[in-house]
Amino acid sequence: MPGGQLVTSINQRLPETALMADAEAVWVRPDAIREVCALLKETQGLEFNLLSSVTAVDYVEHFDVVYRLTSIPRNATAVVKARVFGRERPTLPSVSVLWKGAELQEREAYDLLGVVFSGHPNLKRILTWEGFKGHPLRRDYLEPPLPYSWPHGG
């Protein structure tokens, strides 16, 4: 489903929640991610009843948490993103109350990138051990830190 169409569908029901879109995705306020996902899952005509994946991407100045949704009855997909700022404790609500399958995927994003999902029933490490220092998929994990602005050009 195109991002522009998602923005309209979301903002009609949850005003000023969808912030921007491109051809493939829509970005929503991180504090409203649970409400947006509930809307997309439960609204007739949208019915995104399958959460295909939850992942996060570290862009150094922010994290994008990416939700890939599928509407089986409509044979459609949607990508919803929430941009979270701050490296100390980036936090947004868990969607595990909507889709049980989100539990392990949110734990993975927490373990590897340090994204905290408030309201998660069991947010603890899943791939590394308790006591592991840091989050290994963060760009600032390695010592010394890698340069983040590479020279432009060929």
Question: What does this protein look like?
Answer:
The protein is of the alpha/beta class and 154 residues long. The protein has one domain (3-118): Beta Polymerase, domain 2 (2-Layer Sandwich), CATH 3.30.460. It has three helices and seven strands. It has helices spanning 3-13, 33-42, 102-113, and strands spanning 18-21, 25-28, 50-58, 63-71, 76-84, 91-93, 116-118. It has a five-stranded mixed sheet. Strands 6-7 form a two-stranded parallel ribbon. It is globular, with a radius of gyration of 16 Å.
What topology emerges from the helices and strands here?
Layout: H1 3-13, E1 18-21, E2 25-28, H2 33-42, E3 50-58, E4 63-71, E5 76-84, E6 91-93, H3 102-113, E7 116-118
Parallel strand pairs: 2-5, 6-7
Antiparallel strand pairs: 1-2, 3-4, 4-5
